[in-house]
Design a protein that fits this description.
mainly alpha, MetI-like fold, two-stranded antiparallel sheet, 14 helices, 70% helix, transmembrane helix, transmembrane
Length: 274
């Protein structure tokens, strides 16, 4: 019993240490957003502000069009989430339930494309967007991300756990593929679909490199690019950067705490085969 208790104690201590290491940057970011410039640059660093500067958040919106950044980010993240989820849903359904010539070749090609890092094709995508005249537009921001092979394969593994007899029974009853998708497949796969939607939204919300390439106007920039508004040749206003970063991260944290149960259910799902 003593060995078990000591082992449990050590495990909790290790978990607590890693939890502190993980959470500390977020806590400091929130506290730093309430400090003045001197407190954020002193060495050793100040951990707790003496007098919370709540006005930093008002300065963030006054010094940069942060409300516009929020709107742009919400629009692009929402569009990419909806369209990529729809495309992944149809693609995964086709790979799992439909039989067509060359299906194996298509799967091999898609898997090979999945192994190509995004950074390897980002400049090719940029040249394409530039030639199409889509720089500084919402279409240019979202077009390369309207489909995702990763999400399609995630849903494919999810749909594969649903018994094929359900699909065959629906076909015998006279249902079309479209009816099967929306009346049977989607209700049975809410956890997986929700997980894909949330991951896609978070990815779009945190986008940085691509918007930096295809936008050069403040009116089209996204939140993470907007953080540079608080830096100049004279230096960075670190307290405003931390306050802006807090505003940027806050919506994602709220989404996680609200839907954490659905996320866990989507990742650790029950086997639906029967």
């Amino acid at each position: 019993m003593k060995k078990i208790r000591w082992g449990t104690l050590v495990a909790y201590i290790v978990l607590a240490i890693f939890a502190i290491i993980t959470v500390f940057p977020f806590i400091y970011m929130i506290l730093g957003g309430l400090m003045n410039f001197r407190e954020t640059t002193t060495i050793p660093p100040t951990l707790i502000p003496k007098h919370p500067e709540w006005g930093n958040y008002a300065k963030v919106f006054a010094q940069a069009p942060f409300a516009r950044y929020f709107l742009n980010t919400f629009i692009t993240a929402s569009v990419t989430t909806i369209v990529s989820l729809f495309n992944a849903l149809l693609g995964a359904f086709a790979m799992v339930n439909l039989k067509f010539k060359g299906k194996g070749v298509v799967q091999v090609v898609l898997l090979s494309l999945l192994m190509v890092p995004g950074e390897a094709i980002i400049f090719t995508n940029y040249n394409t967007i530039a030639k199409m005249g889509l720089l500084n537009t919402y279409i240019g921001l979202v077009l390369p991300f309207l489909t995702s092979i990763f999400y399609m394969y995630y849903l494919q593994s999810y749909f594969g756990s649903i018994s094929q007899t359900i699909y065959k029974a629906a076909m015998i009853d006279g249902a079309s593929d479209w009816e099967y998708i929306w009346r049977i497949l989607v209700p049975m796969s809410k956890g997986g679909l929700f997980t894909v939607a949330l991951l896609s939204f978070i990815s779009g919300w945190n986008s940085f490199l691509w918007p930096l390439l295809v936008t050069n106007e403040d009116s089209m920039r996204l939140l993470n690019n907007g953080l540079t508004s608080f830096a100049s040749d004279a230096g960075s206003e670190t307290q405003l950067q931390l306050a802006a970063a807090t505003l940027t991260v806050l919506p994602i944290l709220i989404l996680y705490f609200i839907f954490r149960k659905q996320i866990i259910r989507g990742v650790v799902r029950n086997d639906l085969k029967g």
